[in-house]
Amino acid sequence: MTGIRLTMAALAATALTLTAAPAMAAEAGITDEVTMTLGKDGTLHVVEKITGASGGLKRTFITRTRYDDNNDRLYQISNVKGGTFADGVLTVTGGTVEYDVKGAVTPSGNVEELRWFAVNGWNQQVAKATVKVSGPGQVQNLSCFAGELTSAIGCTSASMDHTATQADFEQENIAPGNALTVVVGYPKGSSSGVPILEKRFSLASAFTLDLVTGGALAALLVLLLGGFGLLYWTRGRDARVADHEKDSVSPVQNGHFAPPDGVRPGQIGTLVDEQADVVDVTATIVDLAVRGYLRIDEQPRQTYDAPDWLLVRLPNAPVNALLPYERALYDAIFDGRDAVLLSQLSGSFTSHLGAVRDALYADVVEQGWFARRPDTERTRWTTIGVVLIGVGLVATVALAWFTTYGLLGLALIIAGGALAVGGQYMPAKTAKGSAALAHTMGFREYLFSGELGDVPEQHRVELFSRYLPYAVIFDGVEHWSRVVASVTGNGHQSDNLYWYHGPAEWDLSKFAGSMRTFTTTTSGAISASRQFRTL
């Protein structure tokens, strides 16, 4: 029995040895002896002696923590020895590691607090860590925490020597990735160390409303109000002159048509809305026909055919008497041919419309109605606005990312948008242009008043036909087409006009519908070129 007991005891001892070995192996790890010295300039110099490492030993430093709602706290690691350091990761190549830390000191009341993660981020277990801390003054208080970074669990031991010049800390079994954080308080002013803060980006802080940004927004408001005041002054001047001159209209002289100030339909269209657009060209084509430079022949068609017209060049027309924009349009229509279908113009007009438009803008400047071309004026202000918007976008991103003055960038964007939109209204007429506009508006009222006076019958077709291109500009084609269709030279109905011919079985009773369709189709053919759309 005694032999059996001895055998069983031996087996039990062997089993205990075998089960204890893995546990001891699991607790194996490195030993880290840390010595930290805080200098007068607030720089913490750290020396670590490491033993028991197996394989590649690496440490990931904590270089950024949350400080408050608006800022992160940075820890700057420098002067690393005993390994290679990149992107916050230290790869150990020797048994001793040295480095400097800035940003680990925080003044607080009557003390300044040194807080550093003396042991943290190792990729291997730390079986035992000891930390000795000395600084530029006597220790006022001390504490330590072990485990996760946010752990409130104290370390194994924390003490100071009898002179209160050195603090000692100890902790066992620190798991990979966990930390031993030491905190030591020194008298205020012992060092010049301060936290290194970096503002954390947030929309709320990036667009803070304070004295600077509020003042900038107020200045922007003053600028916008000033711009509106300038706009009111320039546009109001047009209205004031127009109101003063509006009764000076005499479109009929000696029974013949005499437009106020000798203004042609295309000129009126550009003068009124400050843009050379499709309706101005359409009205000019009708005007050239009425004045004897071309004839409009409506083409016969079946029920479902698209309407079309033949524009015929009239011989012996005094083309040299045409204004530059009229000559440019006349040449663009015929382009070396004697007749052309309206349906063919949408393809052949493309290369000529730019010249017609430029000539119209140049004409209103030559007439003295504008100091500068309206399109150039709009383009200049719109370009400035767009550039300012671009600068504002870049400034907003930069200011919001690096500062709290993001509202200043938004102010630039708003100002740029106001300039880009307001630029469309910046062309201002001269006093002469405003007076011409007033006479034009008076002419418009005269046309639609129904009081046409006593016009001799022999002049009615010519006179009412001369009114028609202006009616195109004033959107009164339907009304004036009916007026023209109602009379002929002898007061009786006719099949055609001297400048407009219809197909067989067509008479002037259909002229109003034909003219309405012609103007609509012509504007469509012109705008189809994509170079002359109404803005």
TrEMBL record:
Signal peptide: 1-25
Transmembrane annotation, as ranges: 211-233, 381-401, 407-426
InterPro entries according to UniProt: DUF2207, YciQ-like_C
KW Membrane (keyword) present: yes
Domain Predicted membrane protein YciQ-like C-terminal: 257-482
Pfam family, one: DUF2207_C
Residue ranges of every copy of the DUF2207 domain listed in the record: 33-185
Name of this chain's protein: DUF2207 domain-containing protein
Protein species of origin: Nonomuraea deserti
Organism lineage: Bacteria, Bacillati, Actinomycetota, Actinomycetes, Streptosporangiales
